Amino acid sequence: MFLKKYGDLIVSIFYIVLSIVLLVLARALPKSKVMSIGPDFMPTVVGILMLLLAVILLVQSINKLRKGGVDGEVLEPDTSDYKRVLASLLLATVYVNILKPVGFLISTFAYLVLQIPVLAPDDKRSKKDLITYFVISLVFTVIVYVLFRYGFKIILPPGLLKF
Fold it and tell me: Which three-class secondary structure string do you get for 67-106?
């Protein structure tokens, strides 16, 4: 019951502290001498957004506690789908471990082909849906590869495919 009542408050405080640490560490990154946007840009943007969302959650949780909303609420049955969470965690762990030796293209495509059906609703797992997920995985993997390779000039792990 403690987490049900104070969970959002605890999480919001944790993310406020985490975002402040991220912003401080982002400022410690070296400035770019070539362009106005340096390596500190994205961590700063993420830190500001995270701080903003954490403050919103904090205000909402404080208002909810003031109104006594948690105690008066009817507890709903636990509808958590632990199998999907564990499957996603397992797939992500395998993906991270095979990314370098197998390569970005193969491992990302395989990960997405397996992960999308895990996250899809039960009624969206027909043969037609699986073909759609296959195509989405292929297109997304190729677009990300081309964007990083030719747009950002960042070489992703080639692994088994040496090109």
Answer: HCHHHHCCCCCCCCCHHHHHHHHHHHHHHHHHHHHHCHHH
First-to-final CA distance of the chain:
55
Q: Which residues have C-beta within 8 Å of that of residue 4, sequence separation ≥ 6? A: 70, 75
Report the candidate in 50, 49, 48, 30 with the shortest Cα–Cα distance to residue 39.
30
- C-beta neighbour count of 14 within 10 angstroms: 11
Give the residue extent of every domain in the chain: 2-72, 82-151
Closest CA to 133 of 154, 112, 151: 112
Q: What tokens does 112 get?
A: 């997405």
pTM of this prediction exceeds 0.90 = no
CB 50 within 8 Å of CB 18: yes
Give 6's pLDDT tier (boundaries 50, 70, 90): confident
CA distance 62 to 85: 29
E strands in the chain: none
SS3 call for 21: helix
Q: What are phi and psi of 149, to 5 degrees?
A: -70, -45
